[in-house]
Amino acid sequence: MARRSPPQLHTSRRGVVSFRWKLITALSASLCVLALFSIYHRQSRPVPSLSAARSRIPLHKYSGDRPKIAFLFLARHDLPLDFLWDRFFKGGDERNLSIYVHSTPGFVFDEGTTRSHFFHNRQLKNSIEVVWGEASMIAAERLLLASALEEPSNQRFVLLSDSCVPLYDFGYIYTYLMSSPKSFVDSFLDTKDQRYTMKMFPVIPKEKWRKGSQWISLIRSHAEVIVNDDTVFPVFQKFCKRSLPLDPSNKWLYLKHRRHNCIPDEHYVQTLLTMRGLKSEMERRTVTYTTWNLLAKKAEAKSWHPLTFTSDNSGAKEIEEIKKINHVYYETEYRTEWCRANSKPVPCFLFARKFTRGAAMRLLSEGLVESSTDTTTTS
């Protein structure tokens, strides 16, 4: 007959086993926390890049040719307002500007596709297909910046859409941008849209998440940070995606599943530069004016698009109203950004969008965008 162990012995053995499992679980959890902590600090620190070794110097120390503004156009196909930009560029010194266009792969700017010689063969040879609201948009921006950085004399980088127009002549814009040692990047706390997801952590800490307009003007060192980034961009590719429109009859699915909706080009540059500790090197506003349909219903807010300027609403009065704006209010931060360049008060906006061809023709016919003798000087 088999002997049975005393009840106390069984209880003791179970206690020892239970204790060991608890100890193993606690140690495993501790190791996981330490690993995450290590990853967080390693990936959230500024990543050593080419920008640390190149061109991070004040503009007045730049040696070589005259410093240039690189005009970077994001086009869907051709440039419908090329005739207006032709007048604008003729008002400047070609030694002070460079032009780059990202368009449909294979599209060539020549005598048959543009009315301005300034755009001849200025398309990128490595352009990609771009879809609004997807990471391909910021990939195209990075390609434009990378191409422009190949020219050492490019010291300012302005991103423009194919519906943008200049509000001043070349000389004024050149002086405005070159006089400031900072980038102009619309950047503010994103507290309403809830586009951040914890899947982005630890590469992108939630407190560094920012929102703003994609239409930016950068100093060279910031352009290099963006091009050399190999940690934040992949996270945007994977986790910052727009949600596809729902059928009106299935709107209840949106509430049930709480679909995540993220627009990469409204967050990438702002978040990256904030993560790199460059806030003090930015004027946290854009120099490109956009007006929105403030009368839209809340239900339509998810699909807001800028209002379009046509020949009916692009006269001298409307343009002058834009030029008079000298501050921007950011509701989510209760912050008023007074517009300055090199600490001096200036009009907020140098460019505006979205303009139709008819609107651009009116600007020219009424002399609202004049070509003028370039009076810029460099030292």
UniProtKB/TrEMBL annotation:
One term under GO cellular component = membrane
Q: Which organism is it from?
A: Brassica carinata
What is the name of the protein in this document?
Answer: Core-2/I-branching beta-1,6-N-acetylglucosaminyltransferase family protein
| The keyword Magnesium is annotated on this UniProt entry | no
Q: Note the InterPro entries from the entry.
A: BC10-like, Glyco_trans_14
Q: How does it sit in the membrane?
A: Single-pass type II membrane protein
Chief subcellular location: membrane
**Can you tell me where the transmembrane regions are?**
21-40
Give the classification, highest ranks. Answer: Eukaryota, Viridiplantae, Streptophyta, Embryophyta, Tracheophyta
- Subcellular location, record wording: Membrane
> Sorted alphabetically, which keywords does the UniProt record give?
Glycoprotein, Glycosyltransferase, Membrane, Transferase, Transmembrane, Transmembrane helix
Write one Gene Ontology MF term. glycosyltransferase activity
Entry-linked Pfam families: Branch
Give a yes or no for keyword Phosphoprotein in this entry.
Answer: no
